[in-house]
Amino acid sequence: MDSKPRDVPFEVARVFQQRLGIQFHDQSLALRALTHRSSVNEYPFLIGDNERLEFLGDAVIGLIAAEFLYQRFPEKREGELTAMRAYLVRKETLARYAREIDLGNFILMGRGEEESGGRERDSVLSSALEALVGALYLDKGLDAVADFLLPFFRPEMVRLQTDQLTKDAKSRLQEWSQAKLKMTPSYVTVAATGPDHDREFTVEVRIGGETYGVGVGKSKQQAAQAAAQDALAQLTAQHSSQKSH
Q1: Is 54 a catalytic residue?
Q2: Is 163 a catalytic residue?
Q3: Domain match, 139 and 23 both
Q4: How does DSSP classify residue 100?
Q5: Nearest-angstrom CA–CA distance, 128 and 107
Q6: pTM for the whole thing?
Q7: Can you tell me the distance from the alpha carbon of 153 to that of 171, in angstroms, rounded to the nearest whole number?
Q8: Residue 129 domain boundaries
Q9: 3-class secondary-structure state, position 6
Q10: Domain end: 148, 166, 184, which one?
C-alpha cells in the first residue's frame, strides 16, 4: 500500500484554512471536504471522501444564489432568475471560484488522478468547492456560507446583467437560425466515452445538414449547450471578420 504519513492530510487542511482565513470548529469536516475519492491508497486511514458533502453543498449554493438574485434583481421574472442562477452555479463558474482560492492545490487525491490533471479539471474543482461549502454550512451555518460565496457572486453581475446570459446558448442559436436561415438546429450525439459513472459525450449542432459547432460534456444536455456556444462563437467571429473587410 503506497500510503503517505498520517500527518500530511491534517497539515494540508490546516494550511488551507489559514489561506482561506476560516477556522473550522470541526477539523474532520475541513479534512473531508478536501478528500477526493481517489485518495484511498495514499491515505487509507481517512474516513470518507467529500462526495456526501458535495451533495449538500450543491443544494446550499443553489439556495444562496437564489436568494442573492431574488434580492438583487426585484424586477426579474422567474425564468430570468432561473437562467442567472444556472450561470452562477454551473460547473465552469464554480471551478473558477475554486481557482481563485487555489483549492486545487489542497485537494487530497490519488497519484493517478493527479497525474491525469485532476487538480485543474473543472469537474474536480467544482465538486471540491461544493464539498467545501457543504462542510462550511455544517460547521458554521448559512450566514457563514453567504459571507464566503457573495464575494464570488458579485463580480459576475457585469456578465449577468447582459441579456445574453438570461438565455441559454441553445435558445440564442435557435433564435438566430430561425431568423436568418428559417431553420431549427438539430443536436446529434456523435460520441460517448468513459465508464458509466464518468461518461463524456460529444455533440454536434447541425443546421440544414451542416455542422455549426461541437461540444463536449458530462451529459448530452451539457454537451449540446457547449456545441451551441461553440456555434455562436464561430458565427460571431465570422461576423466580425466580414465587418473588418
Answers
A1: no
A2: no
A3: yes
A4: H
A5: 8
A6: 0.65
A7: 24
A8: 7-166
A9: coil
A10: 166
